[in-house]
């Protein structure tokens, strides 16, 4: 049997049989995993009542005898949300982001930064007085970047020129077009016009964790453009769409 220890965030919990639990956990070294906690809903000694969504744990994990599943042997609470659990609106935002993590998956290569990003998200939702209205979409863009799926929002994808002002984002190509290349190429089938403010905001989101994102709202037109860019990118290139409280593959 293989045994290891890691820090992990609880993303989701489910019951099977009377006292056993399964958990979706984002581990800092091992990525997104499903673990089984036998007796997890009863054992206070092994789990100390710490198995709850968004809790950060130190875990001891053992592979089953046949290697078919991972068994959570023991867990110790490191930290967890307090007031956040009483704020159903922010818990809804958290759930949206956690479902995206589950849908996209995390391997061991991107595990460390993904873990830190989700932990910062939890802290922000717990402590921030104000949060961006587009936070779930911002999280999708930032998390995709952690896993290596970040579109280049600094240069024209056609000529390579640096872009500082307004530009067009071509969704199916996942790249920007400067005004000159846009004029030469003609209308784009899936093009979104981005003003300088919206483009700067998307770059900012790509570079910062949630606690550093600006909470001030842009003009409505810029917000709609940013939302279209992120939603289009996620659907077209990651194959995921948020519908009815879940991400489905499209």
Description of the structure:
This protein is of the alpha+beta class and 250 residues long. The protein folds into two domains: 3-102, Nucleic acid-binding proteins (OB fold (Dihydrolipoamide Acetyltransferase, E2P)), CATH 2.40.50; 134-249, no CATH class. Helix content is 35%, strand content 28%. It contains seven helices and eleven strands. The strands form three sheets. Strands 1-2-3-5-4 form a five-stranded mixed barrel. Helix 2 (88-104) packs antiparallel against helix 3, helix 2 packs parallel to helix 4 and helix 4 packs across helix 6 (196-207). The two termini are 39 Å apart. Belongs to the RecO family. Keywords: DNA damage, DNA recombination, DNA repair. Pfam families: RecO_C, RecO_N.
Number of domains: 2
**N-C termini distance:** 39 Å
Strand content: 25-35%
Strand sequence of the main sheet, in spatial order?
A: 1-2-3-5-4
What is the chain-wise order of helices and strands?
EEEHEEHHHEEEHEHHEE
DSSP, total strands: 11
Gyration radius, rounded = 20 Å
Helix and strand content put the structural class at alpha+beta
The total count of helices amounts to 7
Shape: elongated
Look at the structure and give the mean pLDDT: 92
Low-confidence stretches: none
Helix content: 25-40%
| Largest beta-sheet details | 5 strands, mixed, barrel
Organism: Desulfovibrio desulfuricans
InterPro entries: ARFGAP/RecO, DNA_rep/recomb_RecO_N, NA-bd_OB-fold, RecO, RecO_C
Protein name: DNA repair protein RecO
Function: Involved in DNA repair and RecF pathway recombination.
């Amino acid at each position: 049997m293989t045994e290891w220890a890691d820090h992990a965030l609880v993303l989701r919990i489910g019951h099977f049989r009377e006292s056993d639990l399964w958990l979706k956990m984002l581990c800092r070294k091992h990525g997104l995993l499903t673990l089984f906690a036998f007796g997890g809903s009863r054992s206070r000694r092994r789990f100390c009542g710490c198995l709850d969504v968004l809790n950060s744990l130190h875990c001891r994990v053992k592979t089953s005898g046949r290697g078919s599943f991972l068994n959570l042997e023991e867990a110790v609470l490191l930290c967890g949300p307090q007031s956040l659990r009483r704020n159903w609106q922010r818990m809804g935002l958290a759930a949206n982001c956690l479902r995206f993590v589950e849908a996209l998956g995390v391997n061991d290569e991107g595990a460390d930064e993904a873990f830190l990003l989700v932990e910062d998200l939890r802290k922000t939702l717990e402590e921030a007085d104000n949060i961006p209205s587009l936070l779930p979409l911002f999280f999708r863009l930032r998390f995709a970047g952690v896993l290596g799926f970040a579109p280049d929002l600094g240069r024209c994808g056609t000529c390579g020129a640096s872009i500082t002002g307004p530009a067009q984002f071509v969704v199916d190509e996942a790249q920007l077009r400067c005004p000159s290349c846009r004029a030469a190429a003609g209308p784009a089938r899936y093009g979104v016009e981005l003003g300088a403010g919206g483009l700067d905001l998307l770059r900012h989101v790509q570079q910062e964790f949630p606690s550093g994102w600006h909470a001030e709202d842009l003009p409505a037109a810029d917000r709609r453009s940013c939302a279209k860019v992120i939603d289009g990118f996620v659907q077209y290139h990651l194959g995921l769409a948020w519908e009815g409280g879940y991400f489905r593959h499209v």
